[in-house]
Amino acid sequence: SIKAIRASIMDIARVVDKPEDIEQNVRFIEDGLMLVENGRIEWVGEWEEGKDKIPSTVRIRSYPGKIVMPGFVDTHIHYPQAEMVGAYGEQLLEWLNNYTFPTEARYKDKDYSREMSRFFIKQLLRNGTTSALVFGTVHPESVDALFEEAEKINMRMIAGKVMMDRNAPEYLLDTPDIGYNQTKELIERWHKRGRLLYAITPRFAPTSSPEQLAMAGRLKEEYPDTYVHTHLCENKDEIAWVKELFPEQDGYLDVYHHHGLTGPKSVFAHCIHLEDEEWDCLHETDSAVAFCPTSNLYLGSGLFKLQEAWKRKVKVGMGTDIGAGTTFNMLQTLNEAYKVMQLQQHRLSAFEAFYLATLGGAKSLSLDHLIGNFEVGKEADFVIIDPCSTPLQQLRYDSSKDLPEKLFMLMTLGDDRSIYRTYVDGRLVYERG
Ligand code: GUN
Ligand code: FE
Description:
Distance between the termini: 25 Å
CATH superfamily of the largest domain: Metal-dependent hydrolases
Number of domains: 2
Bound molecules: guanine, fe (iii) ion
CATH class of the largest domain: Alpha Beta
Shape: globular
CATH topology of the largest domain: TIM Barrel
Helix content: 25-40%
Low-confidence stretches: none
Number of strands: 16
CATH architecture of the largest domain: Alpha-Beta Barrel
């Protein structure tokens, strides 16, 4: 089935390795046409140039004043933590013990997991996020439920069961063998089924024994095209603890690297307090970082050094990190990223911000050949953005503003009301009420 969408169109043409190169690769078509067929981008260009290509039987979906953008890519989020966003008063380690672990216990129940998976996917879509790299809980049921729901709309989702065998309550622990077997089964069942992909997911170094990390490494060796998803250098107490637990390793990242868990499909959330050698290792292994500004501010973890990542040529995507992060919304996440950079005397541009939320995120997930912009043949995941959805935006909006200003207002003032429509796999999956 062919769909014809008429609106302004914006995307970024190619992956870059310095932020100065983004602007010249921004494509903006004021009166654009996008043709979609069988879940793929068929054609993108000027309305005038393309309108004769539309078969006469196809209804034109016209969105005047709206902007079509690639769907947002969330490179780090915990679906079981949606119900605990806004837990009061703690930094990482106490937050995990007091709030997170008791919450995650509920996902032993498949029906509960299913109910919360539905809620979770709805929230992604109403916020314009069409791809995500997602933590489940230690229970394989949690991941089965999430994948089953994502499969219903053929969403591009990467997820995994948490592996953790120590330093957490008994009711949330697996063992090296159980974690291995359950992960293996899930990989066999889900990895590359439709658009679904599996991530081997040791929670973080403190909650896995060396034996379990070795098992995770073995899985990665047996299934080299799966992902690895974990946390790294988020909080100073956490880092000190890792150094105590793994005295024989050369720092936090080396714990993962030693076990074969770095690489082009490895995503490390946070990376706030990296040492020089750790930046080098991320670069050399082509590993990616998930920048999670709302979480890093909320838990008081610190300020991510985005400029250092560019300088070191380390891939970065945006993560909401629900539930330490406080919003599913990528615009609000970019707004917080801007402030994190302000505190470091750097002005994050709107182009750079939208790059990170789309094509940069896709690159971080090694999916930039499939998603992240509107290259012909790519998967048709996109959002129709309303740049003027609130009274304040209407007051501030002026059609003479140039594109960077319009986009900057969108990321500063936008929220879920800015998401007018969301399409996944070429199909309409969310309409603003
Ligand atoms: N480190 C280990 N587990 C977690 C988690 O659930 N959230 C965050 N933000 N950091 C973690
Ligand atoms: Fe996290």
